[in-house]
Amino acid sequence: MRIYDIIKKKRDGGELSTEEIDFFIRGVTDGSIPDYQITALLMAIRLRGMTTRETCDFTFAVRDSGDRLDFSAIDGIRADKHSTGGVGDKTSLIVAPIVASLGVKVAKMSGRGLGHTGGTIDKLESIRGFRTTLSEEEFIAQVNGIGIAIVGQSKQFAPADKKLYALRDVTATVDSMPLIAASIMGKKLAADDDCIVLDVKTGSGSFMKTVEDSKKLARLMVDIGKGAGKKTVALITNMDRPLGYAIGNALEVKEAVETLKGQGPSDLTEVCLILAGEMLSLAGMGTPDEGKRLARRAIEDGSALAKLRELVLAQGGSPAFPEDLPEAQLSRTFCAKQSGYLRRVDAESYGVASLLLGAGRNRAEDTIDYGAGILLHKKPGDHVREGEPLATLFSNREDAFSAAESTLLAATEVGTEPPADEPLVYDIVE
Ligand code: URA
Questions:
Q1: Residues 245, 303: one domain?
Q2: What confidence tens digit (pLDDT) does each residue in 210-239 have?
Q3: Is ligand 1 within 6 A of the CB of residue 206?
Q4: In a domain, 71, yes or no
Q5: pLDDT tens readout for residues 273-288
Q6: Domain that holds residue 119
């Protein structure tokens, strides 16, 4: 079998066989296929798509590219959540400790930033000392000890996705339904969780721009999860505008802490409570509404925040957390050019601007400026006056501001009428 022929077949719209997909994923994992051929096939898949059968085969090949984790040594129900990626999406940092504080085990594998979106692992690494790599024994012992562990992809675990993820990030091949489904579900199936809640983002800042496509992606992933014997639910949530006020790693960690103190933005808090309610319900703790009530109580009584601190300490994070989170040395204020209602804060462009400030990667080997990002002062629907600050931009690079400011200028609209209300959650796919 030759990778050249596989690329050509997909380029011409053909359907790849199980053997061809296995051959490709094996070559990605053992390094025998060079990056230029991997990315050529990724682009062909991005442009030509995949059938459900191909997507399932791709998912299983990613799952089997490394060790399957065995969580049988973890006592109790194990639940996980995964987002398809958004801007200002720090929900895992909030939902995971809430659920763990209520006794459901959270044994979680997360990803890094992808394209214009942020990733939980980059956010956690903005906490001084936080280790996102644990051995399987450490991981299981930690989940048994404190009920929660969050790690990134490792050489042993779904290694094909680690490689594909990094290449997709820098080759405009992220926004592909089969590649997203295989990436997320390959990891989820390699882990040994009982329940999975998927947060499928929809709108400008997500990889699926329409509710219709997001529903298709949700259906595909739920079917793969259920087919593999996992309780799986997907929520379709709004990503036309950034979630909360903070975009960028350390800024988002701070906002997650505020939310766990009960002082977070209303949109972020509501989405987190709904996600936590679904996870608790799948784990057998009543209806989603009852789960949501439990989640709210875990915020109010401080137990969820205490669980986040426990997680940080257990994984080597600074005892001074969150007071010593990194901050950028430089900042600029972005002001309204006219008075009126803030109508549009385009999530994708705000994500790109944050990346330009240093919060994300342009090339796979780029390092992250953990203090970089954007803090919004206004959200769509707010009334603003000319000259009033709409956002503060943070970076450690003086030369990063002008491109970021121009991006925000084109992505922000103020008008005489307030924008139409948009739902936070569009649908639930069971
Ligand atoms: N999250 C993932 O893990 N993979 C994707 O492809 C997109 C979001």
A1: yes
A2: 999 999 999 999 999 999 999 999 999 999
A3: no
A4: no
A5: 999 999 999 999 999 9
A6: 79-157+190-314
